[in-house]
Amino acid sequence: xxxxxxxxLVLAGGLARRMGGGDKARIRxxxxxxxxxxxACIAPQCTGVVINANGDPARFADTGLAVVADSVPDFAGPxxxxxxxxxxxxxxxxxxxWLLSVPGDCPFLxxxxxxxxxxxxxxxxxxxxxxxxxxxxxxxxxxxxxxLRDELRRALVDEGLRKIExxxxxxxIGIADWxxxxxxxxxxxxxxxxxxxxxxxxxxxxxx
Length: 208
Hints:
This protein has 208 residues and is an alpha/beta fold. It has helices at residues 34-42, 78-92, 113-124, 149-157, 164-171, 192-204, and strands spanning 6-11, 28-29, 32-33, 48-52, 67-68, 98-103, 128-133, 136-145, 173-178. The longest helix is centred in the middle third of the chain and has 15 residues, at 78-92. It is globular.
């Protein structure tokens, strides 16, 4: 299966309360920020990359990437960021029909993420796909068709829906599996303890 053109979206709009505020994507793991690691991983897999973040977009100016803010107010969660990415894709790269979303706090994402998600979608015959490692689904590490953006907007605005898995279940979602051991590729950094663990993983696995 040829992997279709896919726009990458880094979700960096979280409030990082458990880290004491600030941008989790700027935490350094193994000498690089998590954002640098995420971009280095997904940029070769995607036709382009944009960042979803609220607040001053200038704080990401060093990436040279477009920064899109939520259009749904009051920090409506990751679905609002995904909608912002879908809307940006429709307006700016209309030939691209697919969006990959990844969180900005996962330093060890797999290098075959886009291909595996498209494969899972095709095998399941569904419009959506997300990643799973071990027993854990990662609904934010997912593939989204731009064609469903109006459906997503209705769910967010008219229904007030916030839970990703409720919305994706309506449309059908394929699952791409990765092992969680010895290293979970979707390890995310939410707390200082997570950051220390990720730093130790990076030190023991310099090729990551």
